[in-house]
C-alpha cells in the first residue's frame, strides 16, 4: 500500500551523506546533545543502529552508494599494496568507470532530475564528471577541500556549478584555517533549498544528493555557528549541518512534498579520530575510527525519514549498508536494479515499512582485502590492522586511547584460518574475542565460513581505479577556467604508482 | 508556582538507585536500545547528561545520597592507605554514624513514610540498621549478594523484612550462578508496587528508595527475561530493571499520584568493566569504569520524572550529583537542610523546573583523596590511578581496551602542582590533556585552583568508618535468626585493619 502510493506519486529522494561518526548525534548518545534537528528527524522517522558504510574511506564509500556495489567490484580500490585504503586525491588518474551504472543514471530514465551538492570524489578528469554519470546539476568540488596550495606545485581545488568551475577553494570560496570560518555549508544549504523549490514548482521527482564535508578536516563552520558548541570547532560544524538538515526537512514540509520525499541521513565513514579532539568526531563506544574496519570505522549513524509512510520514532536493527540506498531508491521509483552485474545493496523497504529483519551479511573491506564480516550479531575478523608501526611511531593513530591486545594491531595480522570472533551485542567495542575452543565459536564460524567462501569464490573484482597517480592530471585547467582567468599550466605527465600508506 | 504546588500537596519521592553505566540506556546511546521504559521516562521527563555520583563505589555513594554529604565528611572512606576505595563487606566494623542525618530521618518529621527496597550497604551491625536511621520499612539485604558461602568460614548474606531477617541469599532467596536465574527483581518490584498502593490508600506522602542490585555481579535476571537481550545476561538484568521501572511509573499513574511524585533514576557508580562482557555494562565513550575517578567511573545516567511539573523531553547540562537528591527532596518537602554541618548537595529544582544552570564544582574522591574536580566543562586531575601494576598483572583491569598514556596510570601519580586538564566537551573520553603552556590551561587552572583550595582548606573529614574489619561482626546471627533456625556461631573477635587493594 505504502509502496504503491510511493510509486504512483513518484517519490523523490534526498540523501544526506556526511562524514560523521556514529556517536556524533544526540540520538546516538553524544553527551553534548547538540543535534536537535537530526534527533527530531529520528523521532519522526526510523533510527538504524546497525547501518554500515561499504568502506572506511570517502571515495570508495561514495562509489558504493551510487552504484550499489562494493568498491572491489566498481573499481574503487587499489592493488598497489595489500589491504590499503585509497581515494581520489587530485593526482589520481582513475575515476568512476563508464561501465558502472549510477543511481542518477537509472533514475533519469524514470524522469527524475538529479543534483549533487558537495563533494563528488569519484574522479575529477573530464570523463568522470558527475553530469556525465547521470546528474543534471552539480554544485561543489571534485576533491576534498584541502589547501591552500600555491597553484604552482599544486593547484587549489575548483568548485563547480554544473559543467564548469566557478572558482577555487581558498581563493573564491574562502576557508579560514586559523578561525575555522567558512560559509560553505550555508551556500550548500541554499543550493538544496533552491533546487527543491524548483523541482516542486515543476512537479518533477528528484534525487538530491547532499554530500557536503564541513566535518571533514580542515573542519569549518560559518560565523553564526563558530563557538556555539561545547565540542569545539568540530561541534560547531556538526551544529551547522544539523541546522541545515532541519531547514531542508522543514522546506519539504512547507512545500507540501515531505510525504513524497524519502530522505535518508548517513555517513561515508566513521569519524576521523586522528583529527581529534579539535577536528575529529565520535564513534561512540565503538573501536577506532575512519580508515579501519573496526566498528568505529564503518558503523554509521543512519536515519530514514518519510512522514506518512515510516511510523514515527521507530528503531531498526536491520543490518544496512550505504549500498542499500541504491537498491531501495530504485525500488521506490518502480525500477529494477541492473541484472547484468552483481548488486550488493538490498531493498530496505520491507525493513523500513514493515519492520522486517532481512538476513544478510556485512563485508568490511579495506582496499583489495575482505578484512571482516558481520553475520547477525557476530563479527569475524579475517585480518586485523590499524596502521603500521612506522606510521604509528610518527604519531598517526587511528585508535587514540584504545588498545585491544591482538586486535588493534600495528602489524597486519592474518586470521583467515582462525578468525577473531566477536559478539557485537555483548561486546560492541570489539574487546573480548570469543574463545576458539568454545561451542559458540565453532557453531557460528561454521555458518560464517560458508557465507565468506561463497562470497569469495564468486567475487570478480573490477579493474582497480586507484593505482596510478600523475601530477599532470591535477585540477590545473578545469572547464570554465578560461572565463575566470584561472587556468594553470600542468606539468609534464609522469604517471606513477600511487603510494597508499595505510 | 510549581514549587508551591509541590509543597502544598506533599510531594512523594521515588529514587531508583541502580548500578548501571551511563551508556547502558538506549537514551544514552546503548546500541541495542533495550530500555524502552527508561527511554520513555526520559522522553516524559528530563535527561541529565552531566550527573555524577559522589564516589566510584557503592557504599560511599549510597551514604552520600542519603546524607547529602561527601563520603569524606560522612565517614564512608578509609585511611588505611592513600586513595583507596572502601565499602561495607560483611566483616566491616563501621557503618553510618548516628551523628549523620539521613534524608528519611528528616522526611519522617514532615510526615513521610520511608521505605528502602534492596541493598542498604551502610553497615549491617545493629546500630546501623536502616530502621534506626529514618526508614520505616525495609525489604532487602545489608550487603552485596555475593556467595554462596559455607556458613562456617563465612555466613550467607541475610535478607531482611523490616527489623528482622526472613532468610538468606542462596538458601531462601536463590541465585543460580550457572544460569544467572533469580527472581529477586520481581520480588523487589512487588514490594514497591505494594508500598505505593498502601501509601496512596492512606494518603501519606512517601519516600521510596529502590536500590536493587541485579546488574551488580553476580548478575541475575528472572526466567522470563533470561536470554531476551542482545547483550547477554547483563542485558537481561537491565531489561528486567527497565521493565520494573516502567511498571512502577505506570502504577503511580494508574493510582493518580504521578503528579505528586517526584521520581529520579540514577546509579551509584559507573558500570563495572572488570566484569565485562558477561557481567559488566557500558559507560558509553567515557574512560574506564567503576572504582576509578575517570568519567566512566563517576558520570551516571540520570532522569528526573514528574508529570505535570517537568516539561516532557527536556535535557539538562546542569552538573548534578547524587547528593543533590538529598537537598532537592528536602526542598520539595518544604524542609531546610541541616544548618549545623556542611551539605554538599544543592537544590536542583531551579535546574529541573526553570531550566537554570547553577554553577558548582564536582569533586571526584577516591577514599581520602580528592583525585579530580570538574568546573564547567573542564576537569582537572590532581591524581591519576586506575589500579596497581600488581593487580593489573593479575588480570584486574578497570579500563579494558583503554590505555591513555599518562592518564590511565597503574602507578599512583600526583599532579597536584600541575594538574592534568581536560575539556570534557571536546574530549569526553579524557584522552587529550591540554598543553600546560596554553593560555587556556593557565586561565582555567587559576579558576579551578581557587575552588580546590577553598574546598581543601575548609574540609573537615569525618571519622573514617571503613578502616576496621572483624570476622566476628559478619551476619552470623541477624535479628530474627532464631525464628528461622538460622543463627550461626560467630568466631572470636579479631579486629584488623581492612585491606583495600585499589
From TrEMBL, chains A, B:
Pfam families xrefs: Sulfatase, Sulfatase_C
Keyword field: Calcium, Disulfide bond, Glycoprotein, Hydrolase, Lysosome, Metal-binding, Signal
EC class: hydrolase
Stored SUPFAM superfamilies: Alkaline phosphatase-like
GO MF, one annotated term: metal ion binding
Free-text comment on the cofactor: Binds 1 Ca(2+) ion per subunit.
Gene Ontology CC annotation, any one: lysosome
Active site (UniProt): 58 (nucleophile), 121
Modified residues (3-oxoalanine (Cys)): 58
UniProt cofactor(s): Ca(2+)
Chain ranges of the Sulfatase N-terminal domain: 20-334
Assembly behavior: Homodimer.
Name listed for the protein in its UniProt record: N-acetylgalactosamine-6-sulfatase
Amino acid at each position: 500500500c505504502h509502496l504503491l502510493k510511493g510509486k504512483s506519486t513518484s517519490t523523490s529522494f534526498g540523501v544526506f551523506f556526511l562524514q560523521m561518526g556514529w556517536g556524533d548525534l544526540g540520538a546516538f548518545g553524544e553527551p553534548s546533545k547538540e543535534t536537535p534537528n537530526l534527533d527530531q528527524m529520528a523521532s519522526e522517522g526510523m533510527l538504524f543502529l546497525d547501518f554500515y558504510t561499504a568502506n572506511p574511506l570517502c571515495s570508495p564509500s561514495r562509489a558504493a552508494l551510487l552504484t550499489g556495489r562494493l568498491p572491489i567490484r566498481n573499481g574503487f580500490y587499489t592493488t598497489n599494496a595489500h589491504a590499503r585504503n585509497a581515494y581520489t586525491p587530485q593526482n589520481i588518474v582513475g575515476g568512476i568507470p563508464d561501465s558502472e551504472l549510477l543511481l542518477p543514471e537509472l533514475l533519469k530514465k524514470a524522469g527524475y532530475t538529479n543534483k549533487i551538492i558537495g563533494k563528488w570524489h569519484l574522479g575529477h578528469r573530464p570523463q568522470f564528471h558527475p553530469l556525465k554519470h547521470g546528474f543534471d546539476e552539480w554544485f561543489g568540488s571534485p576533491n576534498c577541500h584541502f589547501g591552500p596550495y600555491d597553484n604552482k606545485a599544486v593547484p587549489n581545488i575548483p568548485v563547480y556549478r554544473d559543467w564548469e568551475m566557478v572558482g577555487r577553494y581558498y581563493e573564491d570560496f574562502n576557508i579560514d584555517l586559523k578561525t575555522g570560518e567558512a560559509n560553505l555549508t550555508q551556500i550548500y544549504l541554499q543550493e538544496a533549498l533552491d533546487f527543491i523549490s524548483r523541482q516542486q514548482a515543476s512537479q518533477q521527482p528528484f534525487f538530491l544528493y547532499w554530500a557536503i564535508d564541513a566535518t571533514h578536516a580542515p573542519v569549518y563552520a560559518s560565523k553564526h555557528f563558530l563557538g556555539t558548541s561545547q565540542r569545539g570547532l568540530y561541534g560547531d560544524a556538526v551544529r551547522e549541518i544539523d541546522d541545515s538538515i532541519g531547514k531542508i526537512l522543514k522546506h519539504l514540509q512547507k512545500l507540501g512534498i515531505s510525504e513524497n520525499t524519502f530522505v535518508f541521513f548517513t555517513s561515508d565513514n566513521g569519524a576521523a579520530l586522528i583529527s581529534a579532539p579539535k577536528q575529529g568526531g565520535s564513534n561512540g563506544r565503538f573501536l577506532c575510527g575512519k580508515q579501519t574496519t573496526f566498528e568505529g570505522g564503518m558503523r554509521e549513524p543512519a536515519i530514514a525519514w518519510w512522514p506518512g509512510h515510516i511510523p514515527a520514532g521507530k528503531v531498526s536493527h536491520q543490518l544496512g549498508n550505504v549500498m542499500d540506498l541504491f537498491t531501495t531508491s530504485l525500488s521506490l521509483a518502480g525500477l529494477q536494479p541492473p541484472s547484468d552485474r552483481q548488486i550488493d545493496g538490498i531493498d530496505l523497504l520491507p525493513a523500513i515499512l514493515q519492520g522486517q529483519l532481512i538476513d544478510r551479511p556485512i563485508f568490511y573491506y579495506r582496499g583489495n582485502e575482505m578484512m571482516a564480516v558481520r553475520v547477525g550479531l557476530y563479527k569475524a575478523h579475517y585480518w586485523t590492522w590499524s596502521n603500521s608501526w612506522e606510521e604509528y611511531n610518527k604519531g598517526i593513530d587511528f585508535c587514540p586511547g584504545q588498545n585491544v591486545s591482538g586486535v588493534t594491531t600495528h602489524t597486519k595480522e592474518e586470521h583467515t584460518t582462525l578468525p577473531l570472533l566477536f559478539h557485537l551485542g555483548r561486546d560492541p567495542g570489539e574487546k573480548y574475542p570469543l574463545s576458539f575452543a568454545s561451542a559458540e565459536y565453532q557453531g557460528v564460524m561454521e555458518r560464517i565460513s560458508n557465507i565468506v567462501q561463497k562470497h569469495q569464490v564468486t567475487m570478480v573484482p573490477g579493474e582497480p581505479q586507484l593505482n596510478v597517480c600523475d601530477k599532470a592530471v591535477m585540477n590545473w585547467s578545469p572547464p570554465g577556467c578560461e572565463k575566470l582567468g584561472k587556468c594553470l599550466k600542468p606539468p609534464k605527465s609522469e604517471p606513477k604508482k600511487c603510494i597508499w600508506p595505510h
